[in-house]
Amino acid sequence: ASASIIVSEMADLGSISFLKLRAAVAAVGSDTDPYLLNNTYSPAAMFGGYPAFGINTFATNPNLRSERTNSSEFGIDARFAKGRFGADLAVYDMTTEDQIIYLPVATSTGRTSRLANGGAINNKGIELQLFGDIVKSDKLTWNSRINLGANRARVTELPDGVSGGYPIVASMFPNDGGTVGLEYVAVEGELLGQLKGLTFMRDTDGNIIHEGGLPMVSEEKSTIGSYQPKARIGWMNSFSVGNWQANILFDGQIGGLIYSRSHTLHNTAGNLVNDNDPNLDMNAIGGRVIYDVTYDGNGEPVYNLDQAGGVVGSGVMYDASGNLVDNTVSVPIRDYYYKYYGNVWSRDNIEPSTFDASYLKLRELSIAYTIPADKLTNTGLKGLTVSFVGRNLLLFTKVPTIDPETYSIRNGLFVNGYESTSMPSLRSFGFSINANL
Question: Which pTM value belongs to this model?
């Protein structure tokens, strides 16, 4: 059900030329896919020369209930200065319950999982659109539009019998050489899509704890945050000067986390320098201290690790009395590098390759020229416009080596906040001619 009221038609609001209030509530259901309520059989490999059929790999559930979603939305639509400027604000709240999910079961059952209802997710958000004709004259027009959006999807309830988090993807890359790896989980009370894995051991102030000069890694997994950004933004500007038109679109996001497996693999292979890694600025004054490399008589660096100095990791260590003090132990650069990244062969520590996924993109730039009609005399054309367009032209981000907008597909799911050996994003250019006959 929905309702709206145009306040500006009921009263004189002065400079507010239009004002509309709206509200809506809804309750909808979502059924499951076919053939999930009872066991079915599918053709399998021949057995003893005879045709064979196999049963479902998961336990079906004839008592499944439909998912239920209850939502509400309230909004304001306003125009100012006779419609030259405007704003549209929407606030919404949506809760989905009785989700249909697969829960793990013991392998002794002969099944991989069971189908059940359980859990609830709440989405709260706000969307704001501001727009207006900044400049409006016979020679120049400038129209600008800004879109802001913030959504928080939070797990308010887990299925019965699930504790410590529901594994949306139990292992993001199980054959990557690590012993436990990265998980993508839902944790009750937390934002959906938590990244979970081994992390650095830290003191109460967040400093990395060292042992023998090397950073210590936790023995138990923990969550370090969600892929969900705090906000998304889009900014479109359109200009017109005479017969020239131009459109510029920026978009981006603020916050959110992304784990880059590409970054991990590059570090494993030694393909990156420290300038590529904002998490490990080896040359930072006041941070990790690199001792000078020794040079021979010809001015060439000496690569013997015993002569090349070492690195003192930024953080703390335990002294002989068991107290935490500033770390002062120097270790060879190679040893620190291997340990920091979870060592070459075991990539269990997820922190070194997890980054703030904030970014800003120059998403699109287009320039067009419309040839005046008097120049088309005797051509048979009523109009002719020539356009140039470029997409993904610039990227501003602190995430190294990858596009933070990248996502992966795991277990048939589109997984945000995780990147794995992705292809570089493409910068494209186009040219078009639009003729009116």
Answer: 0.83
